[in-house]
Write a structure and sequence with these properties.
This protein is of the alpha/beta class. The protein is built from 18 helices and 25 strands.
Length: about 500
């Protein structure tokens, strides 16, 4: 338990005029942005979400015994005045950015655990999850037998124990709590995906990174960021946080072939950070030369600063996975890990829902499930599928509701360009009308002289794709990957593309 004055010491962006001695000396046990979780000696921070506003629940928090309320200075002044009058024994503190002060107090509450743990942030439109799993494997199989914490899309883990959260990058108080537990369990490294929304919404503020990995940037999340300039700015914030870190060694690892590389490298140079590059470009500090890409493995030659190191063989398919693995090998070299062990460990990694093959040698064609839900990731997976020299590429895809509408027709054009059979279906509909989603996607097919099928029921769409497939075809079921549910306006149902595909494969091939 700490005093409130300890949590805000040094913080400037809030209204400190009316903070009394009593407020400063209030004992604090925990902090929450969820009024339902508030207990005695908790601070409630009212934050505005994309769908709800925490200010509506201030009274609920007070009823649950919160004595300190942090609110947004821009919130309804009349309403705040009424609340102050009604609850005169509660301390109300206005902040310019409640999310930022939440991050600041959260770090102080747990004594800034990331100061004591190696912390690697991974950002990019695609490849964050695979890169995080590859890096986790390398660290845990290193000669020092590191214990890692993993924060990401599929799951959050401390060592081998899973921690339940609902976001790719959890809120700041949740992150600091996980890292505090990690410290107590002797975790040496934190490997975390840092999404653009999390960076923009201050969830990663006041974390002490020693490494930032930038995989790539292509159009995505423009429903939130509005344009690519804002999206890039959000991604670049990871390097700002790296600069502000207390760590002695600070390293930026960047894909040399990503869009906006010049802007990214210029930003890093302005911050005076060390930057190394990776890619399939010989100009990169760490690069690969492809030996082979086939339906069973991916192999390449790995070079470090112009010197050949070793051949690398991956169980995962595709050129994009070569890039993901190169960023990890670059990290291993820079931090002087055992490179032979690193190469051996990444060769065995498989990541759920990332070009995950669900067929076996008994089947005459390949069925793969992939999380590709952006234009760039969908294009990449279809291009890689083509490189396996199939007779035809059959793709099942849709687009999520309540998300960026601009990418929908683009994804349709991509499937028309790179697939032979395209089956349009539902993804996570959420609260948006299926008619609107389908209309947006179908606009991309107009004028292309491409025949596609539209099967709203995702289960039936997968069935049709497998039924349609012939010898040496490849079926790509795109969009949901590792997810085991489907979201509709009125319900969320259990749904796993992999299980559904295997069910129909077993039915059709009796195996």
């Amino acid at each position: 338990m700490k005093y409130f004055k300890e949590l805000i010491k040094g913080y400037k962006n809030f209204d400190s005029k009316n903070i009394t001695k009593g407020c400063l000396n209030t004992k604090i046990k925990n902090i929450s942005y969820n009024s339902k979780l508030i207990k005695k000696d908790y601070i409630f921070v009212a934050i505005k979400g994309t769908k709800d506003d925490g200010h509506k629940y201030i009274e609920n928090a007070i009823e649950n015994k919160s004595k300190i309320i942090i609110y947004d200075c821009s919130y309804d002044k009349k309403k705040i005045k009424e609340l102050k009058s009604k609850y005169d024994k509660v301390y109300f503190i206005g902040a310019k950015n409640p999310r930022e002060i939440l991050a600041y107090m959260s770090a102080k509450l747990f004594d800034e655990p990331t100061k004591k743990i190696n912390t690697i942030g991974i950002t990019g439109t695609n490849g964050k999850t695979t890169t995080s799993y590859l890096l986790k494997s390398v660290l845990e199989n290193n000669k020092n037998e590191n214990k890692t914490a993993l924060i990401g899309t599929i799951k959050n883990m401390i060592g081998k124990s899973e921690i339940k959260t609902n976001l790719t990058t959890p809120e700041s108080i949740d992150l600091e709590s996980i890292f505090n537990k990690s410290l107590k369990k002797n975790v040496s490294h934190i490997v975390m995906e840092t999404s653009s929304q999390a960076l923009a919404m201050n969830r990663c503020d006041y974390l002490n990174f020693d490494t930032a990995i930038f995989t790539n940037i292509t159009e995505d999340h423009l429903d939130y960021h509005k344009n690519m300039k804002n999206y890039l700015k959000a991604k670049l914030k990871l390097f700002d946080l790296l600069k502000e870190s207390c760590k002695k060694k600070k390293l930026a690892i960047v894909n040399i072939d990503t869009d906006y590389f010049k802007e990214i490298s210029n930003h890093i140079k302005k911050l005076n950070l060390k930057m190394i590059t990776y890619g399939l470009n010989e100009k990169a500090d760490y690069y690969g030369k492809i030996i082979s890409l086939n339906s069973k493995s991916t192999e390449y030659k790995f070079y470090a600063k112009g010197k050949f190191i070793s051949k690398v063989k991956l169980s995962m398919l595709g050129k994009f996975n070569i890039l993901n693995s190169l960023s990890v090998l670059a990290y291993a070299c820079e931090y002087k890990l055992d490179i032979k062990k690193a190469i051996k460990s990444i060769s065995k990694v498989q990541v759920a829902g990332r070009f995950e093959i669900v067929t076996n040698e008994k089947h005459p064609f390949i069925v793969a499930v992939d999380y590709s839900h952006t234009p760039d990731s969908l294009e990449n997976i279809l291009i890689e599928a083509k490189k396996l020299n199939p007779n035809r590429v059959i793709v099942v895809f849709g687009c999520g509701g309540d998300r960026d509408r601009n990418k929908r027709p683009i994804m349709a054009k991509i499937t028309a360009k790179y697939s032979d059979v395209s089956i349009l279906t539902t993804d996570n509909q959420r609260t948006e009308s299926i008619e609107q989603i389908m209309s947006d996607i179908e606009a991309g097919f107009e004028g292309l002289n491409f025949n596609y099928k539209k099967i709203i029921d995702r289960r039936e769409a997968i069935k049709e794709a497998i039924k349609e497939a012939k010898e040496n075809d490849i079926v790509i079921i795109a969009g949901k990957g590792h997810e085991t549910y489907q979201i509709f306006p009125d319900r969320t149902v259990e749904f796993d593309d992999r299980k559904v595909a295997r069910e129909f494969l077993n039915e059709f091939f009796k195996c």
